[in-house]
Amino acid sequence: MLKLAKNIYIDFSKSPRLTSVMLCLFCLPAVMLALTAHADDKDPFNIITGVTWQRDDNLFLVPSNFLLSPSFSRADNITTAYVGAQLDKLYSLQEFKANFTVTDYRYQNNKSLNFISKNYSAAWLWNLTPYLKGTLSADRQQALNSFQDYRSFTLATLKNVRVNQAQHFEADFSPHGVWHLLGGVTHTEATNSQFFIQQNNYSQNSLDAGVKYDFRSGNSLRLMGHERQGIYGNILDPTNLSDTGFKEAEAEALLDWLVSGKSHINLRAAYVTREHDHFSQRDYSGTVGRVDYNWMPTGKINVTFSAFSDLSSFWNLDSSFTRENTLSISPSYALSDKITMRADASIYERTFLGGGVIPSSHRVDKGESASIGIDWKLWRSLTIGGNLARSTRSSNIPGLDYNDTTAEINANLLF
After folding, report:
1. Residue ranges per domain, the chain?
2. Which of 14, 56, 204, 229 gives a 20 to 30 Å CA spacing to 190?
3. How high is the pLDDT of residue 40?
4. Which residues on adjacent β-strands are paired with residue 83?
5. Which parts of 172-313 fold into alpha helices (H)?
6. How many H-runs (helices) and E-runs (strands) does the chain carry?
7. Which residues sit opposite 130 in a β-bridge?
8. H or E stretch including 29?
């Protein structure tokens, strides 16, 4: 309760909306002070905060004729607020980077999905000598599993939060600055808060080794080999072909090619093989790759063309992995030094392959997505923006088609 004058009080407990307004008014001087501070992304330490409001007309990505439980709402308004800190500090030859963010997700209609995520990344870019350097890093990402694949629509299991964690060490030895000897180790973990056999819990250790060659033109070619061993977070189940572990090998080539002053290509080509400890029906192997072509015809226009093909584990009763092929284009145009328009369009085909418990249904999904947005840097510390997106999926399996439209506005503050 706040006393304004003699015998005049305001009881905030009886007026939540008034509480929010008064808090905003009380915080306004601090916000204005932050805006006048000369903080930017080049400072060694920054506080970041922001809020996003999003309207999603098909949150669960279901067909228009799908009957949801009365406990759920097909459309929702989602408010996301975050606060965090960033560090980027150079000490002699050593550089330290860190980023920690707490994000609060609030759903207006489907309140059972509310959750708070805590994400971080940290890296030590170490240099022992001018010829020997590397990176020691760790990161953690926590997010709600997409309803594109997770389809358990019960109140007890609706919210399925996935946590991905990784710790990585790599070394780069190059006595002449042309040839590089590369090596490293990586540990990754992924866990779901609910049972999700299609994208199972697992932990994995990886040994990485390779060479890199730097051309005088500024281009580079890297050849890498990876040996990985993983453990799934489930018990051995012959009935459902649920395995306990796997071994994976990958050989890849990566080309970083500066075509001209206005265009740049990143190319990755690899061959991957995964073998499981007990059930060969879950094994897969094949070629994967990605190409990104970035074109800047003027100082205001930037266009990126991308194409990739990937294999990934995805256990169903009638399949064991997927191949996804995607094409996309992402243009942006700087209307001024403060306002940028951006867009994105993509198409994909996802094929479900491999053996399973029952004969294959030969599932194939095809999808399209498009979005347009704007970012406006009001001050050095404050950026606001908006985005409108549309996505669709069609499948040869009944009940998996959907159309989804989202609209959002956001504001981000750095100080």
Report:
1. 1-36, 45-414
2. 56
3. 56
4. 49, 102
5. none
6. 1, 20
7. none
8. helix 16-36
The terminus-to-terminus CA distance of the chain in angstroms comes to: 32
pLDDT of residue 41: 55
Please state, in angstroms and as integers, the Cα–Cα distance from residue 135 to each residue in 96, 106, 123, 167, 309, following that order. 10, 36, 7, 11, 28
In the block, tokens 């070619």 appear at: 221
Q: Convert the pLDDT of each residue in 4-35 to its tens digit.
A: 334 433 443 343 333 333 334 334 344 444 44
pLDDT of 177: 86
Where are any strands of DSSP class E within 41-75? 45-56
The verdict on domain 45-414 having CATH code 2.40.160 is yes
Q: Tell me the CA distances in angstroms from 204 to 227, 232, 279, one per residue in order.
A: 10, 9, 18
Read off the pTM.
0.85
114: tokens are: 């509310």
Q: Residue 194: name the closest of 140, 154, 166 by CA.
A: 154
CB 401 within 8 Å of CB 385: no
Euclidean distance between CA atoms 249 and 81, whole angstroms = 40
Which residues does 280 contact at the CB level (< 8 Å), separation at least 6? none
Q: What is the pLDDT of residues 327-367, one digit of tens each?
A: 999 999 999 999 999 999 999 999 999 988 999 999 999 99
118-143 core/surface letters (b: 16 or more CB in 10 A; e: else):
ebbbbbebbeeeeeebbbebbbbbbe
CA separation for the pair 141, 191 (Å, rounded): 11
pLDDT per residue over 271-330, tens digit each? 999 999 999 999 999 999 999 999 999 999 999 999 999 999 999 889 999 999 999 999
